[in-house]
Amino acid sequence: MPRTKKLPQVEQKQLEDKETNIDHLVAGDLPQSLTESTTPETSEVGDTTAFAHLGKNSYSDSVDKQLTYIHFWGGERGGAGKSTGSRVMLHFLLNVVKDSTFYLVETDRSRPDVKTYYGELLGNRCVDAFFSEAEFKSNSADIIFEKALQTNVLVNLPAQIAVPFDEWIERNCLAEMTAEKNIKMVMWFVCSGEEDSVDLFFQSLEKYGCWMQHVFVRNEGVCPDEAVWQRIAQLPKMKQAQEQYHFPVINLPKFYMADRDALKTNPMPFEQALKRNDIFTELGKKRTHKFLDKAASEFNKTGLFDTNY
């Protein structure tokens, strides 16, 4: 039986030092400038990506399971493009990576946009969860980790989730548990180009950057001005953060308003809408195909996915 291709399908090699501390991440050198998307290189210990797989603590059990990923689409600010990024990645997973096992976890209770578009297609691989500071509701988000014990997970985070998200991370000792269970968390942090959005990215890095891989996502649809991104790239704090945490930078291409609105009126997966003449015009189809192709190229630059795209 052929092996099912999973998200991402990167073969895990055993690290020689079983006692590597969780705070030690081995990464390949990345470019210093953030004015262009960065491409990681192979690490010296044999990993096939520059993002080191977390080492084991002295108390960790031996890990036999395949490495699995939890991909969070966050950004904390409303309107930054988290839902759009999630939907584009879903299209990428289904049509480029050809994954048939991953789970989508929708955690935005007020605007479950991603579930609205992809819930029917994914069926029982789309589940709801929410983060809460209330103790009697605090275990709802645990399904994210439980699913990741078997397969990869994509999570659409709502805006202003930092406090209950932080509490969930701390309460469940996830820095330790992900290392023990061979799970890697990735925060796809969508930035709008505004100062407060960049500051929120720094805050996330300071809290979790030593063990949770971050990806800085420049949303060109919200901020198409390259000069803004260049100014952000030259910030001393940004340069220092990249040197310390080795995060890649990618662009989320502009999704043109006419095409975005046409799909918003008829919420469905990209692949279905592209077959419908009553949703996209011929030029709209061309623009949307180009948008998805550009996004796929950016995702591949991170080295987190096993594709031949």
Q: How big is the Rg?
A: 19 Å
Mean model confidence by pLDDT: 83
Assembly state: single chain
Largest pleated sheet: 7 strands, parallel
- Helix tally equals 11
User: Per DSSP, what share of the residues sits in E-state strands of 2 or more residues?
Assistant: 5-15%
Structural class: alpha/beta
Number-wise, the strands total: 7
What is the overall silhouette? globular
- Unreliable segments of 5+ consecutive residues: 1-62
Distance between the termini: 24 Å
Helix share of residues? 25-40%
Q: Biggest sheet, strands in spatial order? A: 3-2-4-1-5-6-7
Overview of this protein structure:
The structure is a single chain. The protein has 309 residues and is of the alpha/beta class. The chain is 37% helix and 12% strand. The chain contains eleven helices and seven strands. A seven-stranded parallel sheet has the order 3-2-4-1-5-6-7, with helices on both faces. Helix 1 (82-97) runs parallel beside helix 2 (113-122) and helix 1 (82-97) crosses helix 11. The longest helix is centred in the C-terminal third of the chain and has 20 residues, at 282-301. It is globular. The two termini are 24 Å apart. 39% of the residues are buried. The model is unreliable at 1-62 (pLDDT under 50).
